[in-house]
């Protein structure tokens, strides 16, 4: 298979040249559909990470001094450039991750939506807030938002462009610099996006790219950061959170999931089947919010299962740089082996494969069939561990309470989906599930695409959040500037404390009565 025409050797040289690296070491980037090597990606050493932070810090001082309006003008140009060139990003993403083109295109839209949201919302979010101070009429207190400095941003391979650029956007607009460490497998598309930021007028050096395996440069990345934005597995999140804690810097950890979907008895199965297929198999099942557990009542289980399996068998799986396939490849052979091992473990312990269950070497080295299981029991690995592949299991339930209890029986709490004809009843069921995203009559996109609302994982699915006001404020420190018109707070040395206490209590009572404090 030949690479997309946009992926030229000149482009690859430009993108790999953006990595801060003096190590002489390289990671071989392969085209996932064929396993053929595409380019050597330079690797960074801890010293390179330090160099990257120093450069980002110098540029950040300039960037933060620009008025917000000027920074937003850069982001408006970036938005326009990405609208024009998004399909080149999709080409690179497909080469590096093997995802279907529809998904790669949608991922570029995520960055467009986040950018456009914060262009509109930033002036309100970052505005200084003046309050009456401690002494009414005599004092003021103003909350001022100051950029943290340079953010260490670590992203995974599954949604590399969104988890890099969308999470960098509020940080940058708020006046920060960024040192970005994408996964080795998925750096080129991210570098292309960073190139667009520079083309749009961002000061030289503000966003730096470093590359390497976590254990090699992870510590240096956090050591030099003023805040860490991490998306990835729960296991890595624990390591990063511990180091950030040691350094007393803040972090956001967006981690894994084992997301449930409940079909209520009055749900419209036409909608449920189509929605569940999408929510389960999008991005070849490598989405943190995708569905890996489906709960259906005993009464509707047979009909649901028959129709769902039929729909899954109709999924077109292929590797192509066009929009025809429904589903692409898994990201790598080790990922395919992990998914296969989960299915084989379940089958060995008595589960039934209703469809799929096998690799597709005829399509490429990392392809795996869309797979539906039943008869999954708690002793099987895939009952509780995130599989992160095109595999789901159907579980019958006898009552809604039992379905909710099963949905909550997990260490994770990222996303949950509930389908029902009575929307209020479905929403009430959804609110009982311990997850940061609840989607009623949708699998995941409804909540994820609502950029005005803040969301993040409950339980082992994360710490902190993204999107909404909190998704930008987290990248700032708040400074409380309090001004007294006249010094009335210091008691003179001869203060009569009996009278003073009495006066203070009366004053506080009066303020409460007037509703001032
Ligand atoms: P991972 O944790 O192995 O790697 C993620 C990133 O962290 C990579 O860039 C990796 O190189 C880096 N890394 C690894 N060890 C590190 C260390 N010690 N210090 C610093 N960086 C380190 O995760 P993955 O397998 O690449 O990604 C898939 C996981 O990400 C899944 O669990 C998925 O659910 C999760 N995810 C979560 C969200 C979300 O928003 N909650 C979104 C996408 C993916």
Automatic annotation (TrEMBL):
PROSITE patterns named in the record: ALDEHYDE_DEHYDR_GLU (PS00687)
Alphabetical list of InterPro entries matching this protein: Ald_DH/histidinol_DH, Ald_DH_C, Ald_DH_CS_GLU, Ald_DH_N, Aldehyde_DH_dom
Aldehyde dehydrogenase domain sequence ranges: 22-481
Keywords: Oxidoreductase
Keyword hit for Coiled coil: no
Entry's transmembrane regions: none
GO molecular function, one term: oxidoreductase activity, acting on the aldehyde or oxo group of donors, NAD or NADP as acceptor
Coiled-coil regions listed in the entry: none
Residue positions of the active site: 254
Alphabetized NCBIfam families for the sequence: PRK09407.1
Family according to the record: Belongs to the aldehyde dehydrogenase family.
Protein name: Aldehyde Dehydrogenase
């Amino acid at each position: 298979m030949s690479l997309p025409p946009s992926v030229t050797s000149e482009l690859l040289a430009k993108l790999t040249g953006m990595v801060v690296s003096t190590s002489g070491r390289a990671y071989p980037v392969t085209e996932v559909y064929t396993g053929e090597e595409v380019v050597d990606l330079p690797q960074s050493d801890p010293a390179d990470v330090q160099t990257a932070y120093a450069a980002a810090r110098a540029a950040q001082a300039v960037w933060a001094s620009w008025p917000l309006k000027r920074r937003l003008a850069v982001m408006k140009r970036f938005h326009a450039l990405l609208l024009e060139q998004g399909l080149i990003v999709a080409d690179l993403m497909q080469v590096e991750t093997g995802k279907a083109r529809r998904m790669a295109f949608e991922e570029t839209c995520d960055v467009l939506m986040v950018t456009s949201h914060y262009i509109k919302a930033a002036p309100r979010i970052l505005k200084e807030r003046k309050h009456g101070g401690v002494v009414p009429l005599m004092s003021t207190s103003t909350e001022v938002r100051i950029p943290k400095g340079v953010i260490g941003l670590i992203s995974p391979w599954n949604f590399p462009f969104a988890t890099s650029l969308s999470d960098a956007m509020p940080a940058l607009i708020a006046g920060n610099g960024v040192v970005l460490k994408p996964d080795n497998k998925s750096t080129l598309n991210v570098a292309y996006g960073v190139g667009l930021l520079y083309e749009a007028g961002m000061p030289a050096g503000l966003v730096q790219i470093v590359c390497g395996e976590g254990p090699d440069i992870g510590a240096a990345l956090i050591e030099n950061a003023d805040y860490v934005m991490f998306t990835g597995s729960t296991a890595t999140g624990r390591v990063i959170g511990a180091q950030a804690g040691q350094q007393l810097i803040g972090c956001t950890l967006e981690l894994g999931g084992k997301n449930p979907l409940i079909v209520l008895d009055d749900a419209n199965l036409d909608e449920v089947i189509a929605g569940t297929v999408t929510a389960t198999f999008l991005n070849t099942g490598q989405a943190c919010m995708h569905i890996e557990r489906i709960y259906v009542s005993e009464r509707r289980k047979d009909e649901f299962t028959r129709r769902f399996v039929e729909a899954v068998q109709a999924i077109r799986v292929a590797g192509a740089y066009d929009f025809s396939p429904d589903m692409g490849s898994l990201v790598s052979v080790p990922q395919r082996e992990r998914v296969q091992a989960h299915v084989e473990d379940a089958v060995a312990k008595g589960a039934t494969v209703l469809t799929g269950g096998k690799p597709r070497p005829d399509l490429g080295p990392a392809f795996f069939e869309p797979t539906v299981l039943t008869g999954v029991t708690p002793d099987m690995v895939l009952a509780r561990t995130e599989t992160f592949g095109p595999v789901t299991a159907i579980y019958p339930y006898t009552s809604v309470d039992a379905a909710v209890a099963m949905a909550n029986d997990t260490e994770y709490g990222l996303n949950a989906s509930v389908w029902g004809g009575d929307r209020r009843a479905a929403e009430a069921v959804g609110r009982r599930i311990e997850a940061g995203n609840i989607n009623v009559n949708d699998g995941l996109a409804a909540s994820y695409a609502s950029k005005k609302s803040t969301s993040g994982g409950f339980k082992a699915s994360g710490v902190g959040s993204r999107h909404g006001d909190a998704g930008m404020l987290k990248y700032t420190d708040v400074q409380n500037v309090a001004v007294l018109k006249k010094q009335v707070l210091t008691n003179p040395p001869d203060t009569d404390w009996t009278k003073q206490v009495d006066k203070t209590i009366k004053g506080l009572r009066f303020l409460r009565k007037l509703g001032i404090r």
